Amino acid sequence: MEQIIKIEQIAKYNDLKGVETKHPLISVFNNSDTKALPNNSRLHFDFYAIFLKAGNCGELKYGRNNYDYDDGTMVFIAPGQVIEVNNPIDYKPTGMALLFHPDLIKGTALGKQMNQYSFFSYDSNEGLHLSLKEQQIIRDLFSKLEYELSQSIDKHSKNIITNNIELLLNYCVRFYDRQFITRENINTDILSKFENLLNDYFQSENAQDTGLPLVGYFANLLNLSPNYFGDLIKKETGKSAQEHIQLKLISLAKERIFDTTKSISQIAFELGFKYPQHFNRMFKKNTGYTPVEYRNLN
């Protein structure tokens, strides 16, 4: 049976790993020098955690496809998230770890923009896969944080630490953009499947039965987290997944409005709208005409 471990403070995680706590709100360490976490357990974090795994990380899959990078993997965990630990018997920790509490970045520029780093909500199988050069950049930033924590705390410490964390995260944004590009074939396949799922949804009675489709619905069918799926679609097409859904709705609405045997309310219901006035508002916002005006014009 899995053991559930709630970790509110960074010091508690350090204790599990056999690491000295140098600062109550942040910890940086080389994982190779630490103990393995309790196996067959689930860890609930109340802080941010970033892990860089060195060397071959084992078999990792993206949907049904194997990852093509095995030089190193970064995994990001946000407060409130849970990770499962199921390592082989002979497993030895590798790489680097950075933990920081939300209290560390309160009132800073980084604290105000943490929501923009959507990869903290990616699933663990959607980690960031690094080349050796990219790994070195990340290792250098970990080392700078380690150095700063080894110094006496002064009035500059917080700014230097948070600025380095922000720089690390911004590099990760760049590397994720590269990852989306290098996986162009996989991305195209996902985009194609998304289009097919959209068509299937509206050709069936799903819309009438369950209403307007959500981004999470398609992400789940594609075995992706909503954030990763949304970012992938945005990078690939320049439009968000929600915009794609809305464009499909408008396209179908324009076609069905030509069928004068159906009322506007009936068409709205078939497309998944609970209230016809919501359909009217969306249609006019996107076309400049109400559904009735559009029908009359055409």
UniProtKB/TrEMBL annotation:
Alphabetical keyword list: DNA-binding, Transcription, Transcription regulation
Record-linked Pfam families: HTH_18
Domain HTH araC/xylS-type intervals: 196-297
Gene3D superfamilies the UniProt entry points to: Homeodomain-like (1.10.10.60)
UniProt-recorded name of the protein: AraC family transcriptional regulator
GO molecular function: DNA-binding transcription factor activity; sequence-specific DNA binding
Organism from which the protein derives: Flavobacterium hercynium
PROSITE patterns hit by this protein: HTH_ARAC_FAMILY_2
